Amino acid sequence: MSKINNNTVLSGVQPSGDLHIGNYLGAIKNFVNMQNNYNCFFCIVDLHAITVKQDPKILKRNTLEVAATYIASGIDPKNSVIFNQSSVSAHSELAWVFNCVTRMGWLNRMTQFKDKAGKDKENASSGLFIYPNLMAADILVYKATHVPVGDDQKQHLELTRDIAQKFNRDFNCEDFFPIPEPIIDKNISRIMSLKDGSQKMSKSDLSEYSRISLLDESDEIIKKIKKAKTADSVMPGKIEEVQKLAEVNNLLNIYSGFSEIEKYKLVEQYEGQNFSKLKSDLSDVLVERLNPITTEVKKLMQDIGYLSEILLDGQNKANQVAQKTINDVYDIVGLHRNEA
Ligand code: AQP
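^ thats the input. predicted complex w/ adenosine-5'-tetraphosphate below
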């Protein structure tokens, strides 16, 4: 299919657990919207997942489940390249070159490392620390110009831009790497935990009640939304006041993201009411929107052969582009290549 522009998009999701509505609204929904206009590479970033401990068997299954979720959400494998990161070795090779370009001071400023390593920083893997270099390689190995991500990845993308600029400057190859732009939906930006509006919704949160998984059945969705934290007051009439109630604001962001109704209209609709009607309407919207995805993921997971074929086809297509970039990079950097 011919695209209306020649720009390239790369993004990915870690197969580190069941995907949730934060991953969907922050990332996958945008992937679907962009696929007809850009040359799209959608990756399952399994090498990122192993920066923290994973069960090998579960990791393999989760990788297929992310592929199934992409397809069930509307990404067409004939139109976009779907593959897993570890199957294209140029990602790791370019990441090593970037390990030698990125400055320690840049990595020391990354807040996600601080959040994920927590108090036990000495015990975190070194992979977790240099994770942003691999992310830069994921993007730049395809010379991607646009990267749809959630707001939590904005800092890593800024680092990617710095790495691209430094590489181009250090090796005197202006414009070799493009300077990629983040695509972040400003209305959604970051979906927060259902239990604590100051924490982002995350796959690795120990509490199931903090998130709605894309595989949750209707009764689980209803139960989780019923238990979600709100506020002691009723719905305020102004959006600025709603924003001070983090958990209520979060429920409205989720509602708006799935219903396409603008948030200020929802505020008008529920003004002065307690939150039970909002919760029951939100549950209805979620059940209606998520049920078809959940059903399709479960169906696709019965056909591992089909999913493996999609990933192999994606790997071949991704390799064609990535291999050319890494060959050029080795040449630019001065690494000797033996001719066959
Ligand atoms: N809560 C969120 N709100 C909006 N966007 C989000 N994303 C993740 N959480 C939210 C976006 O989803 C994409 C894939 O994320 P990821 O799986 O690669 O890594 P993550 O950001 O670390 O996600 P999790 O769920 O928090 O995973 P764990 O717990 O394994 O670390 C990214 O574009 C991200 O911005």
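The chain has a mean pLDDT of 95.
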